[in-house]
Write a structure and sequence with these properties.
The complex is a heterodimer of chains A (about 450) and B (about 525). In chain A, about 15% of the residues lie in helices and about 35% in strands. In chain A, a hairpin with a 7-residue loop joins β25 (about 310-315) and β26. Chain A has a five-stranded antiparallel sheet with strand order 15-16-17-18-30. In chain A, strands 2-29-28-27 form a four-stranded antiparallel sheet, with no helix packed on it. By secondary structure, chain A is α+β, with helices and mostly antiparallel strands. Chain A has six helices and 30 strands. Chain A has two domains: about 35-55 and about 365-425, no CATH class; about 60-365, Methylamine Dehydrogenase, Chain H (7 Propeller). By secondary structure, chain B is α+β, with helices and mostly antiparallel strands. Among the domains of chain B are: about 15-70; about 450-530, no CATH class. Chain B contains eight helices and 29 strands. Chain B has helices at about 1-10, 15-30, 45-70, 95-100, 105, 410-425, 450-465, 480-520, and strands at about 80, 110-115, 120-125, 130-135, 140-145, 150-155, 160-165, 170-175, 180-185, 190, 200-205, 210-215, 220-225, 230-235, 245, 255, 260-265, 275, 285-290, 295-300, 305-310, 315-320, 325, 335, 340-345, 355-360, 365-375, 380-385, 385-390. In chain B, the strands form seven sheets. Chain B has a four-stranded antiparallel sheet. In chain B, strands 3-4-5-6 form a four-stranded antiparallel sheet, with no helix packed on it. In chain B, strands 7-8-9-10 form a four-stranded antiparallel sheet, with no helix packed on it. In chain B, a hairpin with a 5-residue loop joins β19 and β20 (about 295-300). In chain B, α2 (about 15-30) crosses α3 (about 45-70) and α7 (about 450-465) packs antiparallel against α8 (about 480-520). Classes of the chains: A alpha+beta (about 450), B alpha+beta (about 525). At the A-B interface, β1, α1 and α2 of A face α3, β1 and α4 of B. Chain A: One of its GO terms (cellular component) is nucleolus.
C-alpha cells in the first residue's frame, strides 16, 4: 500500500522573517474561482463608475492676455512651452507646468493671426493683420526656468508685405515657411520677400498646414470653400476640392501623413485621403456650431477640435463621434486648440482671453505611478474594454453632462437631420425605382474636385 | 535535398519525454481554455474578424501559460492511496493509514467525544483553517484546525440546529430555537435575525454575501449580510425540510423535499428555477460537485442518485441510504449513515463512481453531518457523540491560491481580502443556472411575424393550389357532379383551415395582452378588486 496525504508545514508557506514579503502562491484552476465571469462584469461596472468619479479633466486656466486668444503654437523642441497670440497683438510664451507667462514678444500692431516655431525650436515666426511677418528668437529654457534677464525681446526680423495674413506654418523639416493671406506665400528665413507665391482663384486663403511626412507638400483652405493641395516643387497647385461650406482649419495625421482632417464650418470634421479627394474617409459629427481649430495628437490616433459652440471635443481618428467633450461655464468661443507634444494634455485658447489646460484622458492619474497602480489601471481598462458593449457599462462610459444650450442644440440638430432623412426616404419610396439616388454623407458636402 | 528533409523530420519528432510533456500540457490547456473558441470562419466583417482572432490568440497564450505554471511551478502534489496485489482501498483502515503518514497529518485523525450536548453540526471556512461546531443542546465552539486550538466556546442554552461561517472566520451564524443569530469570533451576539423565523438549515453565498435560510414552514429567506436588507423571501410550498445546499458553481440554492422533489432557487424569483422529481420518497440529503455539473441526492428508499445538471438526467444510481452527503474539492463523494461513512470515487473519469474508502465509528454513534475540509485530505464528521476527523487521501486540492483562499492567512491579509471581496460583491441578479452566460450575446430572435399581406398572399396561393387539383374519375354513382362539387369545396376548406386557426390564436393573444394592460392601468384604489395574478 502506498499512501500520501496533503501535509503543509507552516514554515514552507509563510515568510521567514517579519520584514520579508508575504509569500504568494498561485493556482489558476478555474474551478477555484466560481462565477468568475460575473465577478469580472461587476469589476467592469465598478471600473466604469470609478472612471466617471475621477474624471476631472480641467487642470487650470492661464490668464494674461488682454484680448481673445487667436492662435497658438507648440514648441517642437521643448515640452513645457507653448506660444499664444492674441487679437491685440500680444504674443506670449507660457510655461505649462507652472501655468505662468515666461516671456512676451511685443511688436504687432493689429491682431496676431498665425504663430509657428521652426523645426529646431529656436525661432518663432508670427504674422498678423498688420501685414508683417516677424521672426523672434526663442529664449533657451534652463533646468528649472527660462533665462529671464529681460522678459521681452526685439524681433530678429520684420518683413512687411502687401496684404494682411491669416495663417502661417513652418515646414516640418527644412527652412521654409508658408503664410496664407490674399494668396499663398512661401518664405525663407533670410529673405525679406516671399520666395514664391501661389494663387488659385481670387478668394483669400485662411489656413495652411505642411505635411509631416513630405516637407514640400502642404494643404490650404480658402474662403471660396475649397481645400487645396500644393507641392512646392511644382509651379502650380496640385488639386483642390470644393465643399459646400468653408473649412476653418486643417491638420495632417502625423502617423498616416497621407491623411488630413478638415475642421468645417458646418459643425463637422472631414477626414480625407489626400490621394482621393472625391470622398471623405470619415465624417466626425458632434459639434453644434462651426469647428474653429483642429490638432492631431502626436500618436495620430485621436485629434482635438475647438468649436464656436464653446466646447472642445476629442475624436478618435476613425470614429464618427467624439470620445470626450470638455466645457466650463467661463470658457467662451474656442478659437484655437493644441495637443501637447506628449499626447497627455490639451490646451485651448478662447474668446475670454484665457488659455486652458486639460487632460487628454479625463480620469488619468497624474504624477508618478507605482507599478502596482499602473497594473491596476491597466486591468481596469482591460475589463472595461471587454464588457464595453454591455448596456450598463456602455451607459456609464458614454454619459456626459452637457450645458443646456448645447444639449438643446444637439437635440434640434438631430431632429433636423432625422427629418431630412425621413423625407428623403419617403421621396425615394414614392418615386420610380432608381430615379433618386442617395448620396452618402461622406460625399454629400463635396461639390467637385478640381485638378 | 534529402539531408534537408531529414532535418525537418527530426525537428518534428521530439524525444519521447518532451513529447509526453507537451501532450500533458495540451490536456491541461484545455481546462484553462474555458470552453471552445469562437468560430471566426463564418464572419464576414474583416475588421471584427481580425480583432476577435487577436483576442482568441491571447486566450490561447494565457491558457498555455497557466498550464505551464500548473505543470512546473505548483508547490505541492495531491494525496493518493494505492494498493498492491489483492489489497482493496476500501478495506484499508484509518489506523493503517496513520502508521504510514507523517506526524502532522496524524493529528488530523481524531475523535472528540462530547456526549452530553448531543448531535453536532460542523462547518469550515472557505480556506479550511477554522471550524465551527454546533451541538444540538446549545454548545457553540470555534476551533483553529491548524494547531487544534480552541478559540472560543460558549453555551447558548437553547437548541442549535445548524451553524455556518460568513465570509471569514470572524463571523458565523447559528440557527437556534426561534431565530438565527450572528456571532463574532469572541462569541458576542451581533444580530438576531427575527425575520427568518425558526430556521432549520443555513447556507452562505460567499460571492454575493447572502445568508440563506429555510425555516420550519418551508420559507426561504435571502438576506444580504453587508447591508442587512432582505433580498428575497419565498414560500417553497413544499413543506418542512432540512435539506438545503448551495451549488458553488452558480450560487443556486437547491432544497430537497419530503415529496421526493428537488427545487432550485434564485433570490430574484419566487418560483423555482427547476423542480425535479428525484426520488419516490423523501429526499434525505443533497450535494453538489464543485464544477457544478453533478448533483448527488439520496432518498429514503435507500438509493443514491447522481444527476447530470446540464441535461437533468440520472447518470448513476447507487444502493445505500445517506443521512448526509458531501463532495470533496477533487470530486470524491462521501455519504454517512448511522455510524458508517463511505467514500466513493470517480477513477475512470467517466462519472462512474465506485467504492473508494470506508470508515465505521463506534456503534451507536449517529452521524449528523459530514464535510470535507477544503485544501486538506480530511473529512470532518459531526455525530451524536461529538465530532471526528479522518484522513481521506486525494480528496483535497493540494495547491491553494493566496488571492482566493489562503489557509496561512495573516490578519492583515484577511482584512485586505475582506475589502476586496466586498468591492467584488455580486448583485443577486447574477445567480442563474448558467453563470457563464453573463457578457455573451443574446440568442438571435426567431423570425418576425408575417405581415397580414404576406399571410393573405399565402392563403390565396394555398387556395389556388387546392382549386387546381384534378379529381379522379370515380365509378358510376360516385361521380355525380354534386358530389364532385362537394368534395372540391371540402378540399378548399381544408386548405384554408390552418390559416384560420392561426388567426384565431393571434386574436386570442392580443385579447389577453389587452386584458393585462388593463390591469396595469387600473387606478390604485381599484387595484385590490382586480383579478389576482396567478403565481408564476
Amino acid at each position: 500500500m502506498k499512501v500520501k496525504v496533503i501535509s503543509r508545514s507552516t514554515d514552507e508557506f509563510t515568510r521567514e522573517r517579519s520584514h520579508d514579503l508575504q509569500r504568494v502562491f498561485r493556482n489558476f484552476d478555474p474551478s477555484l474561482r466560481t462565477q468568475e465571469k460575473a465577478v469580472e462584469y461587476v469589476r467592469a461596472v465598478n471600473a466604469a463608475k470609478l472612471d466617471k468619479m475621477f474624471a476631472k479633466p480641467f487642470i487650470g486656466a492661464m490668464d494674461g492676455h488682454m484680448d481673445s486668444v487667436s492662435c497658438m503654437a507648440k514648441n517642437p523642441n521643448h515640452l513645457k512651452g507653448i506660444f499664444s497670440g492674441s487679437m491685440d497683438g500680444d504674443i506670449r510664451l507660457w510655461d505649462i507646468a507652472n501655468r505662468r507667462t515666461v516671456y512676451q514678444f511685443p511688436g504687432h500692431q493689429g491682431a496676431v493671426r498665425g504663430l509657428t516655431a521652426s523645426t529646431d525650436g529656436r525661432i518663432l515666426i508670427s504674422c498678423g493683420t498688420d501685414c508683417t511677418v516677424r521672426l523672434w528668437n526663442v529664449p533657451v529654457p534652463t533646468l528649472n526656468s527660462y533665462e529671464t534677464s529681460n522678459n521681452s525681446s526685439e524681433p530678429l526680423a520684420v518683413y512687411v508685405w502687401k496684404n494682411a495674413f491669416w495663417a502661417i506654418d513652418h515646414q516640418w523639416d527644412g527652412n521654409l515657411f508658408a503664410t496664407a493671406g490674399a494668396q499663398l506665400d512661401i518664405w525663407d528665413h533670410n529673405r525679406s520677400q516671399p520666395v514664391s507665391s501661389y494663387e488659385w482663384g481670387t478668394d483669400s486663403v485662411i489656413s495652411v498646414r505642411f505635411n509631416p511626412g513630405e516637407p514640400n507638400v502642404l494643404a490650404t483652405s480658402a474662403s471660396d470653400r475649397s481645400i487645396a493641395l500644393y507641392d512646392l516643387r511644382m509651379s502650380s497647385p496640385a488639386r483642390k476640392v470644393i465643399m459646400r461650406t468653408k473649412t476653418n482649419s486643417i491638420c495632417w495625421n502625423p502617423r498616416e501623413p497621407m491623411n488630413f482632417t478638415a475642421a468645417n464650418e458646418d459643425c463637422n470634421c472631414y477626414s480625407y485621403d489626400s490621394r482621393k479627394l472625391d470622398e471623405a474617409k470619415c465624417v466626425h459629427r458632434d459639434h453644434v456650431s462651426a469647428v474653429m481649430d483642429i490638432d492631431f495628437s502626436p500618436s495620430g490616433r485621436e485629434f482635438v477640435t475647438g468649436s464656436y459652440d464653446r466646447t472642445i471635443r476629442i475624436f478618435p481618428y476613425n470614429g464618427g463621434h467624439s470620445r470626450e467633450i470638455y466645457h466650463t461655464k467661463r470658457m467662451q468661443r474656442v478659437f484655437c486648440v493644441r495637443f501637447s507634444c506628449d499626447a497627455s494634455y490639451v490646451i485651448s485658447g478662447s474668446d475670454d482671453t484665457n488659455l486652458r489646460l486639460w487632460k487628454a484622458k479625463a480620469s488619468e492619474q497624474l504624477g508618478v505611478l507605482l507599478p502596482r497602480e499602473k497594473r491596476k489601471h491597466e486591468y481596469q481598462e482591460a475589463v472595461k474594454n471587454r464588457y464595453k458593449h454591455l448596456p450598463e457599462v456602455k451607459r456609464i462610459v458614454r454619459h456626459r453632462h452637457l450645458p443646456k444650450p448645447i444639449f438643446k442644440a444637439a437635440a434640434l440638430r438631430r431632429t433636423i437631420i432625422d427629418a431630412e432623412r425621413r423625407k428623403e426616404e419617403r421621396r425615394k419610396a414614392h418615386s420610380a425605382p432608381g430615379s433618386i439616388s442617395t448620396v452618402p454623407l461622406r460625399r454629400r458636402r463635396i461639390i467637385k474636385e478640381v485638378e | 535535398m534529402e539531408k534537408e528533409l531529414g532535418n525537418v523530420v527530426t525537428e518534428r519528432i521530439l524525444p519521447p519525454t518532451e513529447q509526453e510533456v507537451s501532450n500533458e500540457i495540451d490536456v491541461k490547456v484545455k481546462k484553462y481554455m474555458r470552453g471552445e473558441g469562437a468560430n471566426l470562419e463564418v464572419l464576414k466583417d474583416k475588421k471584427l474578424k481580425g480583432q476577435l482572432s487577436a483576442i482568441e490568440d491571447l486566450y490561447g497564450k494565457s491558457a498555455k501559460a497557466a498550464a505551464e505554471v500548473e505543470k512546473w511551478l505548483m508547490p505541492s502534489e495531491g494525496g493518493y492511496l494505492e494498493t498492491e496485489g489483492l489489497e482493496k482501498t476500501w478495506r484499508i483502515k484509518q489506523e493503517t493509514i496513520s502508521h504510514e503518514v507523517d506526524i502532522l497529518s496524524r493529528r488530523n485523525q481524531h475523535d472528540i467525544i462530547l456526549p452530553a450536548l448531543g448531535p453536532y453540526s460542523i462547518d469550515y471556512t472557505s480556506n479550511g483553517r477554522y471550524m465551527a461546531i454546533a451541538g444540538r443542546k446549545g454548545h457553540l465552539a470555534l476551533v483553529d484546525m491548524k494547531d487544534l486550538n480552541l478559540i472560543k466556546e460558549f453555551q447558548v442554552k437553547e437548541t442549535v440546529r445548524d451553524v455556518v461561517f460568513l465570509h471569514n472566520e470572524l463571523f458565523f451564524a447559528a440557527a437556534q430555537k426561534k431565530y438565527p443569530y450572528i456571532y463574532n469570533r469572541e462569541g458576542t451576539e451581533l444580530h438576531c435575525l427575527k425575520e427568518h423565523g425558526s430556521v432549520r438549515r443555513l447556507q452562505f453565498l460567499k460571492n454575493h454575501f447572502l445568508l440563506v435560510s429555510i425555516n420550519k414552514f418551508g420559507q426561504l429567506h435571502y438576506q444580504d449580510v453587508t447591508t442587512g436588507s432582505m433580498v428575497g423571501s419565498f414560500r417553497t410550498g413544499l413543506g418542512r425540510t432540512d435539506v438545503m445546499q448551495v451549488n458553488p458553481f452558480n450560487g443556486v440554492i437547491a432544497t430537497g423535499h419530503s415529496g421526493g422533489s428537488v427545487a432550485m432557487w434564485k433570490p430574484t424569483s419566487s418560483a423555482p428555477l427547476v423542480k425535479m422529481l428525484c426520488h419516490p420518497g423523501p429526499v434525505s440529503a443533497l450535494a453538489f460537485h464543485p464544477n457544478g455539473h453533478l448533483m448527488a441526492t439520496s432518498g429514503a428508499e435507500r438509493k443514491i442518485k447522481l444527476w447530470d445538471l446540464r441535461k437533468f438526467e440520472v447518470l448513476q444510481t447507487l444502493p445505500g441510504h445517506a443521512k448526509t452527503l458531501d463532495f470533496s474539492q477533487k470530486g470524491l463523494l462521501a455519504y454517512g449513515t448511522g455510524s458508517f461513512v463511505q467514500i466513493l470515487g470517480d477513477f475512470s473519469g467517466a462519472q462512474n463512481y465506485n467504492r473508494y474508502m470506508a470508515h465505521s465509528m463506534a456503534k451507536g454513534y449517529q452521524i449528523g453531518k459530514i464535510l470535507f475540509r477544503p485544501y486538506e485530505d480530511v473529512l470532518g464528521i459531526g455525530h451524536s457523540m461529538g465530532w471526528s476527523s479522518i484522513l481521506i487521501p486525494g480528496s483535497g486540492e493540494p495547491n491553494f491560491d493566496t488571492w482566493v483562499a489562503n489557509p496561512f492567512e495573516t490578519s492583515k491579509q484577511r482584512r485586505e481580502k475582506e475589502v476586496r471581496s466586498l468591492l467584488d460583491k455580486l448583485p443577486p441578479e447574477t445567480i442563474s443556472l448558467n453563470p457563464t452566460k453573463i457578457g455573451t450575446l443574446m440568442a438571435v430572435k426567431k423570425k418576425e411575424k408575417k405581415t397580414k399581406k404576406e399571410r393573405d398572399a399565402e392563403e390565396e396561393a394555398a387556395v389556388d393550389a387546392a382549386k387546381g387539383i384534378t379529381m379522379k374519375k370515380k365509378t358510376k354513382g360516385r361521380n355525380k357532379p354534386t358530389k364532385r362539387e362537394k368534395k372540391k369545396h371540402e378540399i378548399i376548406e381544408k386548405a384554408k383551415r390552418p390559416f384560420l386557426h392561426e388567426q384565431i390564436k393571434e386574436e386570442e393573444l392580443s385579447r389577453k395582452k389587452s386584458r393585462l394592460s388593463e390591469e396595469v392601468e387600473l387606478p390604485k384604489s381599484l387595484q385590490r378588486f382586480a383579478r389576482k395574478k396567478t403565481a408564476t
